[in-house]
Specification:
Layout lengths: L1 E9 L6 E7 L6 H11 L3 E8 L2 E7 L4 E2 L3 H15 L2 E6 L4 E8 L5 E6 L4 E4 L2 H10 L14 E4 L3 E7 L2 H5 L5 H10 L4 E9 L2 E8 L4 E4 L3 H13 L7 E6 L7 E6 L9 E8 L5
């Protein structure tokens, strides 16, 4: 096994969300992958094994396996590009088959663009939402009424909350154990809190208590779920938009999102990457 460390969705050579990318001759057992993910310590590590005309991929957070992880997919896409050249790679996940395209920039660094699994969204129960809001010290008056509160899925399930102002987003805090338990009730991977700035720009923060991590600095799976949600609610903004995440953590990240008109179709999410060098 060879493990690489890359930050996905970096912004101008800085920030991004760290991910482990483990190239394996054979897929390790679940307990071994969980142990390695804990040892690496990032929110997710992707494990890859060559599989027919593509790659078999599984994703592990420090405390659980997740069905799909966007930033780790971007990281592994860049790693595949570095090893085997630019192009599109087929990825076989636990519940779906997706693709990632690797592209080399003029500076020699690699970016990647994934095509997510199919999407769906549905209204979240009011009683459940009220419990979540209470754990975040928020009320419904803090939310933007133009964006209904929904569960959204694009390979993994998320709760979408759009707040009215940037300060509310910047001040995000929550009761970790309470939120972790609530997320477990609905099999949520993240709670995606957003602020709409324009028809081409959202600011985002993602609580990831379910995976044993307080917050993710860049979340491609949640970005894809958001795009599917926006399509479902017939949002009138641009179908290609940017998400800025990690700003309030001091880890600037940028996700480029694009979706087509077909309900349920996968979402394109892309971004830059950079290698992480261990400092002794």
């Amino acid at each position: 096994m060879e493990v690489l460390k890359l930050a996905a969705f970096s912004r101008d050579g800085k920030g991004g969300n760290p991910a482990g990318v483990a190239f394996c001759d054979e897929m390790p057992g679940d307990a071994e992958m969980l142990r390695i993910a804990k040892e690496i310590g990032y929110s997710e590590t992707a494990f890859l094994v060559k599989h027919a005309d593509g790659w078999r991929v599984r994703y592990f957070a420090p405390e659980m396996e997740v069905p799909f992880c966007g930033h780790a997919t971007i990281a592994l896409g860049a790693a595949l590009g570095e090893r085997f050249g630019e192009g599109e790679y087929k990825l076989v996940l636990n519940q779906s088959v997706i693709s990632v395209r690797a592209e080399k920039s003029s500076t020699g660094t690699f970016s990647a663009t994934l095509q997510s699994p199919g999407t769906w969204s549905k209204d979240a129960p009011m009683k459940y939402v009220d419990k979540v809001l209470a754990a975040f010290n928020l009320g419904r008056d803090n939310l933007d009424p133009r964006f209904p509160i929904r569960f959204a899925f694009a390979g993994a399930k998320h709760l979408i909350l759009v707040v009215k102002d940037r300060k509310t987003l910047a001040d995000m805090s929550y009761q970790f154990d309470v939120v972790k338990s609530l997320m477990g009730e609905e099999d949520l991977v993240t709670i995606s809190m957003l602020r709409w700035e324009s028809e081409e720009l959202f600011h985002s923060r993602n609580a990831f208590a379910s995976g044993g991590v307080y917050e993710d600095p860049a979340t491609g799976a949640a970005a894809a779920a958001l795009a599917g949600y926006l399509r479902d609610i017939q949002w009138q903004g641009k179908s290609a938009f940017t998400i800025l995440q990690g700003e309030d953590m001091g880890v600037p990240s940028r996700l480029m999102v694009k979706y087509g008109p077909k309900i349920g179709e996968g979402i394109s999410v892309g971004g830059e990457t950079r290698h992480i060098l261990d400092v002794q």
